[in-house]
Specification:
Length: 413
């Protein structure tokens, strides 16, 4: 394994390891907040809303800092901040003490995600590698969900959080293996001008915003639906969600290989939206086996879409200032999740936790006609990122990308 391969493996390994912590925070946290701390649906919505607003404010500056200074310093700072925040959350009981700690953890998670994505995308043009990177991170979330479900059932939420804090701080040991990068000085306004100057980028941002509203439904209602809709134990929740993350990780890995083999990405995008939407609508059935099966359908769709988002981002903006553009995309997805949280959190509390999941699935399905109208018109063609991917594959693959772009569609080597 050469130096470049070791650096790539370090980024993938650190991202997967940090995702273990996210497996707890993403799905068990609402159960902890409601059942252990007694927070209301409004209080839970306030926590997620404050987190989202903070993330919005920092996304572009963090991305630009990755371009200017490199990604290793913000990665390590985010790991340290997350470890401290998780320990504090394990010791806190008051909403007003919990709020700044939760915001700090969420901020650290966003800094980590932007920095890891920037570090990986800056040097990688292979769609198959995008699938591997996505699959490793998603598998980490799944393993974290399983581990936390088993640990919480035997200990309790506070002590589990303290154990997670120690694990998070230990991730700083990855530091020596991480590559250095960055060194591109640019103004913040330059990112916005480049982003707004591409119709394809605006179309990408539009459907991505609508799609990520379902993240808000999942943040506020998914774990509670499993707990109170399907009446699963904490261990059962961990097993249910671990199975689903095994599905989404496999789908992401498969998507990368399909793109590498020449599959048309707009077809995978449409298939991903269809499966994601149908799966979310039908999974709310109270029969456990049916719910599990259609949640798996949903995860296959999300796995395809995860890789498509990375590849499209690389195509649109190339490598030179990728950090700032990752930050802009983070703004879009955070806004989508924020709107979803504010809408679906109270809706689930009042009418049942099944309703936000089903409604968000319907929104995803409504994106299909939008995709049919706009994808060919606004496909990412003629940009530096697309040429870089083509050149990385070489030969006939590069030609196939150029020919597909000339028709308005797009292929990946």
């Amino acid at each position: 394994m050469n130096r470049s391969q070791r650096a790539e493996a370090a980024v993938i390994g650190l991202s997967a390891s940090f995702a273990l912590v996210g497996g707890f925070a993403s799905f068990f946290m609402p159960v902890f907040l409601r059942d252990s701390l007694g927070f209301s649906g409004l209080a839970i919505g306030l926590l997620y809303g404050a987190l989202s607003l903070t993330s919005l404010a920092c996304a572009l500056p963090v991305g630009a800092a990755n371009d200017r200074l490199g990604s290793r310093p913000p990665l390590l700072a985010s790991v340290l901040a997350a470890g401290v925040a998780v320990a504090g959350m394990g010791l806190s009981r008051s909403l007003w003490l919990y709020l700044p700690l939760y915001v700090l953890y969420g901020l650290a998670s966003n800094v980590f995600r932007i920095s890891a994505d920037s570090l990986f995308l800056r040097d990688e043009n292979d769609a198959r590698r995008f699938g591997l990177y996505s699959a490793a991170r998603l598998a980490g979330i799944g393993l974290g969900t399983l581990a936390c479900g088993l640990v919480v059932a035997r200990l309790d939420f506070p002590r589990t959080l303290l154990a997670l804090s120690g694990f998070t701080l230990a991730l700083c040991l990855w530091a020596p293996a991480l590559p250095r990068g960055g060194g591109c000085a640019t103004r913040l306004s330059g990112y916005g001008q480049e982003f707004l100057g591409q119709p394809g980028a605006l179309f990408f941002a539009g459907w991505l915003f609508l799609y990520t509203t379902h993240w808000g439904a999942e943040y506020t209602s998914y774990g509670l639906f499993l707990r109170h809709g399907l009446n699963l134990s904490l261990t059962g929740m961990g097993l249910f969600m671990t199975g689903q993350f095994a599905v989404i990780a496999t789908a992401a890995w498969g998507a990368g290989r399909l793109l590498k083999a020449g599959a048309r990405a707009e077809r995978l995008l449409a298939l991903g939206l269809l499966l994601s939407g149908v799966g979310a609508v039908v999974m709310v059935t109270p029969q456990l086996a049916v719910s599990f099966a259609f949640r798996a359908v949903h995860e296959v769709g999300d796995g395809l879409l995860t890789v498509i988002m990375y590849v499209r981002l690389k195509e649109l903006f190339g490598s030179r200032r990728i950090g700032g553009h990752v930050g802009l995309v983070q703004v879009v997805t955070t806004l989508g999740a924020l709107c979803g949280s504010l809408i679906f959190g109270p809706l689930g509390t009042r009418y049942g936790y099944w309703l936000p999941l089903a409604a968000s699935g319907m929104i995803t399905l409504c994106l299909l006609p939008l995709l049919a109208v706009g994808e060919r018109r606004f496909a990412a063609t003629g940009c530096a990122g697309r040429r870089a991917i083509a050149l990385a594959a070489g030969g006939s693959a590069a030609g196939s990308v150029a020919r597909a772009g000339g028709r308005g569609g797009w292929r990946h080597p």
